[in-house]
Each structure stands twice: as C-alpha cells, then as structure tokens.
Write a structure and sequence with these properties.
Elements: H1 3-25, E1 29-33, H2 49-54, E2 62-66, E3 70-74, H3 79-85, E4 92-95, H4 101-108, E5 114-117, H5 124-137, E6 140-143, H6 148-152, E7 165-166, H7 169-172, H8 176-189, E8 194-197, H9 200-207, E9 209-210, E10 223-227, E11 232-235, H10 243-249, E12 253-256, H11 261-270, E13 274-277, H12 284-292, E14 296-299, H13 303-309, H14 313-340, H15 348-360, E15 365-368, E16 373-376, E17 399-405, E18 407-409, E19 412-413, E20 416-422, H16 427-444, E21 448-449, H17 454-466, E22 477-479, E23 488-493, E24 507-510, E25 513-516, E26 520-523, E27 526-533, E28 543-548, H18 566-583, H19 589-598
Parallel strand pairs: 1-5, 3-4, 5-6, 8-13, 11-12, 13-14
Antiparallel strand pairs: 1-2, 2-3, 7-9, 8-10, 10-11, 15-18, 16-17, 17-20, 18-19, 21-28, 22-23, 24-27, 25-26, 27-28
Length: about 600
Amino acid sequence: MNKRTDTCNQSVKRISNLRACLLELGVDGFIIPHNDEYNNEFLPENAERLKWITGFDGSAGIAIVLDRKAAIFVDGRYTLQLSEQADSSLFSFHHLIELTPIKWLAENLSSGLSLGYDPWLHNLNSVEKLREVCGKVGASLVAVDENPIDAIWEDQPSPPLEPIFPHELCYAGVSSKEKREELANYLKSNDTHAVILTDPASIAWVLNIRGKDVPYTPLPLSTAILHSDSSVDWFVKKEKINESLLVHLGHQVRISDPDNLKSILELQVKNGSSLQICPDTAASWIFDQLSFDGADIRKEVDPVIKAKSIKNKVELDGSRSAHRRDGAAIARFLFWLSANAESEKLSEKEAAEKLTEFRKNEDLFQGLSFETISGAGPNGAIVHYRVDEESNRLIKKDEFYLIDSGGQYLDGTTDVTRTVSVGEPSNEMRDRYTRVLKGHIAIANAIFPKGTTGSQLDVLARQYLWQLGLDYDHGTGHGVGSYLGVHEGPQRISKVGACQELVPGMILSNEPGYYKEGEYGIRIENLIAVTTLNNIDEAEREMLGFETITLVPLDLNCIKISLLKDDERAWINNYHTRVKTEISPLVDTETKKWLRSATQPL
C-alpha cells in the first residue's frame, strides 16, 4: 500500500468518526481551518488538525465537513498539491478565489442545520462572516467547547513546552523596556488602558524573547496584556521559563498560567479598563469573554505588527550579515550542484538535505526558516511543492531545477529562490526565465514616492509575462522578520491586499515566477529592504527605493540576453560584482573559482 492510499483510507475512517462525534454534539457540520489558537503560519504538531483529517499538509487551507458532503479550499499555491494529497471521493476541491467557503456554505447549508466551530481557531471577522451566512440560510452557528477532532485524535501530540530564551540586545537593537514604553505612550495617546496581544511574534518582539514551540519560526506560544504603564501580564506555561529569563524580563513582566487569562480579563473589565484587541488575529473566544462581561473593546490592528516590520539599524545590519553567510552556504551548494546534477543520479531530497548541511556550518545558524522547496522539472511547477519519499524524483538533464529555501540566524532571517538549468534549457525556457528576471529587476530598481503601497508596484514584476498572456498565481513579495517569521505583515507586494505603505526599514521578498504545469517552474527571489533615496537632485518629495540584501548568483545559462535592455544587463553585472566581492572571502578556493565563472559579466 502506497502512502497516498494509506492516507486516503485513514481519512475515510477519520471523517466517519468526526461525523459520529458531531452527531453526539448535536451539530450538523464543522469547519476546520489550518490554524491554532495563536493564528500561526507554522503550527505545532498538536494543532495540525486539517492535515490529520484530510491528508493535505500545505500551510494554508480550510475544510468544511457536513453530514453528507465535505469540501477543501486552498489558494493558487496549493491546487496541485491538494489533488495529490487529499481524497477527491471524500472532499470536493476548490480554489479560494473562485469559490470561497462562505459561498459554498450559502449553497450547501439549509434551514434548521447547525454549523459548529472552535472559537479558539477563528478570529472575530471570520466568525462574523460565518454567522452572517448561517443567518441568511436559516442555519445556526455554534461554538463548541471542545474541538471534536481533538476528541477523536487518539494519538494527538501534547502541546509544546520548549524553553524560552532571551533575544539579546546585540541582535534586537532596542530594549524591551524601550519598546514597551513606546507602546504604552501609544495607548495613552488613544485613551486606552491596555492592548491584548495574541500574536506570539508580537510578544516575542516586545519582550525580546524567542522560543522553539513551532517549526521554522523561533516562537514561544503565549498571550499577553500590555498596559499603559508599560507593564505586561504574560500568560505562558512556567515550565518554559528559567531564572536567567526572569532577570532578562525584569519586574514589570508578570507571569501567569494561560488558564488564568479568563479571570484576568474579567478583572480588567470589572475595573473599567478600555482594551484594544485585533479582530484580524485574535481568537473569537477572547471577544466572547469580553462581550459577556460588557467590556469597553477597541477593535484595532495589533500595534506591534507595523512596529516590528520597520527594522532598526542593528536589525538591518544583522540581516545583511546573515545574508552574506547564507550566500556563502548557497554558493557552496550551487558549486556542488553544478558538479553533481548532470549525473542524473541526484534526487530533489538529497539536494535539499545538502543545502541544509552547508547552512549548518554557518555562524549563528539556528535552523531553516521554512521547509525547503526542491523541485525538478514538473515538480518545480508546483508553487509550494514539498518533496517526500513518494514524490521525490531525480534531477534530469535539460530541465529546470527550482530551490526555494531560507535560514534562521540569530541576526536575521533569509529566504532565497534560484532556478538553475541542468544541461541546456529550451528557447522557451530561457524566454520565460528572462521575463521573470526582467520583472525581478523592475522591482529591485523601482523608485517611488513615500506613501506608495505594494499593490501599486506589483504590476512592475508581471509586465513582461503579461506581454505573452502569462502570469503567476501568487504575490510578488511578502514581509520578512528579524529572526522571526519568514512571512510577516503588514508589508506586501501583491495584486490585492497590499494596502500598507512601504516604509524605510521594512524587508520584503522580490519573487516573481512562472509555472508551466507538468513541465517546469521558475522563481527568482531576493530579499529587499525599503530605503530612502537622497540622490535625486530634482525630487520634490521624499522618494524611496529598495536595497537588495540577498547575495546569490543568478544562472547565466538561463538568460536570453537579446531580451535584456542595457540597464537590465548593467543591473545583473553590478549585482554579480557585489556577490563575487562579498561572498568570495567567505568560501573555499574551489568555490571561489566557480563563483568567478558564475558571476562573469554579460
């Protein structure tokens, strides 16, 4: 029995058990988001409920199970992956844009039915949308006290209890005391007594702490209330804390068990406190508690999200340093790949493991920032492909190999994608690669006025693909943290939803792509930092641009030089000069020799 058949058989049994459990609870359906209590991107094993019930292990998605039908919804990154992992006889598959879960519910719920949900796994906004659609069809929305998947998941892992450690000032750049005081001043200026922080990344940034509760992101899972006197009530398991961390935190941080959150919230309300909380990220359970008690709730975006997105000088310098070391590791890998890939004996999995090996030798390395995407030929066309024993294929001659990877270092977070040719690419492959590269360069060279948003820049990356009626089904850029999440907001470059103005200090990815299903995928990704441009003599307003901080060679063999303009060719040559100059001192003699060849001028 292969892995897929085994997964499908398990899903049949688990869906049956879930429906039996829902019958006992007195509800007719249940909604299962890829989420945990903290709205994390990467989840601890005990929270991988969507994966457990469906077999789909992507980082975003939602399933709905009714008495006689079920559906899974994913975005464009995961449509191919979904069809390979989940059972189409149990679930209908849907693209989130083409058919939303809300529209599906409107068509499949009927009067008198009830839909269950776990209030810890949905934010307030999503619950209000669910309540609205249920109301329109005459159904009811029911918050369950215990998640029914937890009730039937017999070998469910325990919640993580990993130690929490300080994020030292030499990497953070600003003390926790300064951050808390700045946030306290913000609260006082808005006549607000406290803000409830439910995003572990926000808490990690405010308290200058890190942890290991979830894969790939150094987060301790917790909740906090930051008060206008700059003190904090921090709800976290005491088993995670040692004496040195207590010294680091200081006397203004009061530690309490997570089970005490309800009583502390009740006390805040009883004292008449006005409480700010983010309806986009906080669990609806918290709003339920506050609403029952008649709290003065201020529904506002988490103020930490934007603050942590604007990196200070220490964080920016640290990111540059991390990218140099990361670039050296990738240069060693690409040299090794060039010597081994054409043998047609090297697998995607072996290549990914080899790159991790090279990274592990770099100073301050703490782990990967996400699971490496290592896709050869047709697998490269699966945007968020994850190689496993079953899908693993050999890298073959005359095809593209796409590797998207990143590292977590104490001084920064990296994320880089390179598409390389093994043997000789076709004329079409070179054409598409060069159009992606031209879009990448257009973003890297962009000059724009203060106040510009990522959605206003997105077209620059797509224009050369659009000329042939081509496009890619993902955003052009996401925010990146400082030894935090490889994906962070509010900064983005995308067709939709990128409404945050870009501010100096923000770090984003620049990653246009193109994917031909069943044949090959192309993505070129560097990280870029928003900078102020002071060298425009006739500028009448503040102008901004980007500094590219990733230092990894592009594959010259993939480029169709006749498609390049002079300024694009100059950008590539200047970039490669930087790569050679900054990376050469960090690598061995043989890699240095390869690097000279890989960065020769066009």
